[in-house]
Design brief:
The protein is mainly alpha-helical and 98 residues long. It is 87% helix and 0% strand. The protein has one domain. Helix 1 runs antiparallel to helix 2, helix 2 runs antiparallel to helix 3 and helix 3 packs antiparallel against helix 4.
Length: 98
């Protein structure tokens, strides 16, 4: 059970990082550097990580008996820049007490 939470946190950080790279590197390269391939590559990776994040969040919710609010906060964190990094502090505490 604790292993699922650990994987969730790792994927959350990777998803958050890929989101920031997509927003602050790939998008400017596409629109200011005429390099749309950057969004294609980074967007695909980010999409994969987002799906993995949602699946693992659902697993953590189920295994650790989290409520709807926990899942809503996790999903909100995944769509806000820096959201997963902010929430990781809380998730780290929750993982330690699990």
């Amino acid at each position: 059970m604790k292993k699922t939470f650990s994987w969730f946190r790792k994927i959350a950080i990777a998803e958050g990082t890929s989101f920031l790279i997509l927003l602050f590197v790939a998008m400017p390269l596409k629109y200011f550097g005429n390099m749309p391939i950057a969004v294609t590559i980074c967007g695909g990776l980010h999409g994969f990580l987002f799906v993995a994040f949602v699946i693992l969040a659902r697993e953590v919710k189920s295994e650790h008996k989290k409520d709807f609010r926990w899942m809503a906060k996790a999903l909100l964190a995944s769509v806000l820049p820096f959201g997963t990094f902010v929430m990781d502090r809380e998730w780290k505490k929750e993982e330690a007490t699990a």
